UniProtKB/TrEMBL annotation:
Transmembrane segments: none annotated. Keywords: ATP-binding, Nucleotide-binding. It holds the Pfam family AAA_lid_3. SUPFAM superfamilies: P-loop containing nucleoside triphosphate hydrolases. GO terms for molecular function: ATP binding; ATP hydrolysis activity. Residues 123-255 form the AAA+ ATPase domain. This is ATPase family protein associated with various cellular activities (AAA).
Length: 335
């Protein structure tokens, strides 16, 4: 089908309120654009097709309606988790060869879980992601959920920790009861909030109980979901937490080769002058995380646009580089 034919059918599906056909045609249009190598258009269409509903319940994704209501904190009434959907590709991730390989294997294991079951084997389903901020722990969980076509359950640890005695453990229980009832990729972000060393004398008894509770729940978890815990502070995690996971993936800052790939990826959105020396920028940005490089590219684009240009120049990158350098030194002072 040509894109005009698909768009016509999309309109018809929309007027008939045929949601399934609407999404199928939308995906066909995206695949067509991808085949034409219109990657930016394909990505934008993907985001538009599956963008979140701005309607009343922003914590529930459009396509995956959970059977149970989203659990909430009794005291504040805030939701304890969010169900999110992503439509990313594995190629969106720029990682070391080793991490790419390990993650590809993990995804394959999950995809062949029925075959593994014949041999009484199970895929790994409890992962720990550790690494500096902005190295892609959350993003990787989003990519895995996209590739496995499972919704991502994002656990809000700040919401789980309650000021009321005993309520934090109740919140954890509610979260695990919820995730038992579906197949998801579950991301416990910033797990070190409750994973602080249990022997730390400054920690209260309540936190210790919560850590024990969390460990027990992780241990007992039997479902088909993939559980990922992420931390920026692996050194403060209790050794008991490490043992609970089938796999630990360390997200390192990108090397020069990966930084080059990141510049190419994040500068692709806009035309750039030929003189821009990507190799030079990759060398200069030692210590930058993928998120820093993405931010630097975005800032350069904004700089170009507000100065009335539609192509990025070396001067734009120099400006955003100096801004980032400054921000990073402030960040270091705060550590
Ligand atoms: N490895 C990567 N490859 C490509 N893009 C990346 C990568 N890592 C991060 N990014 C980009 O930077 C954004 C922020 O990264 P992300 O939130 O995943 O980092 P994080 O490790 O979870 O950080 P934090 O520990 O602060 O939560 C991502 O949404 C993505 O756009």
């Amino acid at each position: 089908m040509t894109s005009t034919e698909i768009i016509k059918k999309l309109f018809i599906a929309f007027s008939k309120k045929d949601e399934e056909e609407f999404y199928r045609l939308g995906e066909e249009l995206i695949a067509l654009e991808k085949r034409k190598k219109h990657n930016v258009v394909a990505k934008e269409l993907k985001e538009a097709l599956f963008s979140y509903s701005n309607s009343s319940n922003q914590n529930v994704s459009k396509r995956f309606k959970p059977n149970l209501p989203i659990p909430r904190d009794n005291d504040s009434g805030f939701p304890l988790l969010e169900i999110q959907e992503f439509y990313l590709d594995f190629d969106d991730l720029i990682l070391s060869e080793n991490n790419k390989y390990v993650l590809t294997q993990l995804i394959r294991e999950i995809k062949v879980s029925e075959v593994l079951a014949v041999y009484n084997l199970k895929p790994k389903n409890k992962l720990l992601f550790s690494g500096e901020p902005g190295t892609g722990k959350t993003f990787t969980a989003q990519v895995i959920s996209s590739v496995l076509q499972l919704p991502l359950v994002y656990i809000r640890f700040d919401a789980i920790i309650s000021s009321y005695l005993g309520e934090t453990a109740t919140n954890l229980r509610k979260v695990f009861d919820f995730i038992k009832n579906g197949r998801w990729v579950v991301l416990f972000d910033e797990v070190d909030i409750i994973g602080k060393n249990r022997n730390d004398e400054h920690e209260s008894g309540e936190i210790k109980r919560v850590v024990n509770n969390f460990l027990q729940m992780i241990d007992q978890f039997q479902g088909d979901s993939l559980i990922i815990s992420a931390t920026n502070h692996p050194h403060i995690l209790d050794p008991a937490i490490w043992r609970r996971f089938d796999e630990v993936i360390n997200f390192e800052l990108p090397d020069e080769i990966n930084r080059r790939e990141l510049f190419i990826k994040y500068l692709k959105v806009m035309k750039r002058e030929k003189e821009i020396n990507i190799d030079g920028w990759s060398k200069k940005t030692n210590g930058f995380s993928p998120s820093d490089i993405k931010g630097m590219c975005k800032e350069a684009m904004v700089h170009a646009i507000v100065n009335g240009n539609d192509i990025i120049t070396t001067a734009d990158l120099e400006y955003s580089f100096s801004r980032y350098k400054e921000r990073m030194s402030v960040r270091k002072q705060g550590e």
